[in-house]
Amino acid sequence: MIRANIAWRYALSALVAAGCLTATLPEAALARVCRGITIFGGADDGEDELGFCLDSGRQGGRDRYKLRIPAEKLEYSVQQFVITYPDHYDGSFDVELDPEDDPDDQKVEVRVGRGDSQRSVLLRDVVWDEENHRIEIYPAEPVPANQKVELVFHRVRNPRFGGMFFFNSKVYFTGDVPLLRNLGVWILTIGV
User: What are phi and psi of 26, to 5 degrees?
Assistant: First the structure.
């Protein structure tokens, strides 16, 4: 009888532990969403698809977006970054800059370089044109050519409804004809 009680206790303990692990698995699985393989609905040319990472990727929740641009896409120094997104994306961005904070403590960052040599550049202004579904980032000085760039948005509110959202990356190059140059697309998947 005593052995049966002990066996039931072990079985119950194992069942509770397995239940806890199973309950936390979806949360852990959504902890970081990075670019993966896009089977349907991707960019026409695989070269146009850019890398990204979202801290959570949950619909309706707070998030941080890290939108990456490889060095080979930036042939010239960049004086302005422009991001356009679809009208069905109803998330929100906190783009207010605090002049008292360091560049790496802002709500929007432009990080240049790789690994330990990565640094945040000083931004002159960030404009979120909600009506036209556009974000404009103005660095204080042009971002050097042939450098890996990561555009980081802290305190993003994800859309209430998940889906696939095409964020287009465009730039104005320094000394170039003043036309927006398309660099590629980030295909963000939220809540999927």
Answer: -60, -40
